[in-house]
Specification:
The protein is mostly helical and 121 residues long. Helices cover 76% and strands 0% of the residues. The chain has one domain. The two termini are 15 Å apart.
């Protein structure tokens, strides 16, 4: 496996894991207005939740690695791999958030994997 493919996959996985951890943190927020009057207080409140802070770090790391990927890959190749993140999120959502994993999701996962394979042949 070449180094660039590893960077792509690590970036995608970091982004997907970061999104899932952000969701865990968002579940702790309750209601959030994000109005002009409360924006500073709301942002401080958001950043005080450890899961959100960790999710942002992972998401930020994913972004930085993605910039590196873009300097070395064709966008059409690299970006098709981003769809693999949907699979990671679906699986993490099942196991960490106890969301349902339906037949339609399984079909979608198979279609995504097939699409990535076809696009990158």
């Amino acid at each position: 496996m070449n180094r660039n493919l590893i960077d792509i996959l690590v970036s995608v996985f970091m982004g997907a894991i970061g999104q899932t951890i952000l969701k865990l943190g968002a579940n702790k927020l309750g209601s959030l207005s994000l109005s002009f009057k409360t924006i500073i207080k709301d942002v401080i409140h958001i950043l005080m939740i450890p899961e959100i802070f960790i999710g942002l770090i992972l998401f930020g790391g994913s972004f930085l690695l993605w910039i590196k990927v873009l300097t070395k890959s064709d966008l059409s190749y690299a970006y098709s791999m981003v769809s693999l993140g949907y699979i990671v999120v679906a699986l993490l959502s099942k196991f960490l958030l106890h969301e349902t994993f339906t037949v339609n999701k399984i079909i979608g996962v198979v279609m995504i994997i097939s699409g990535v394979f076809v696009l990158n042949r």
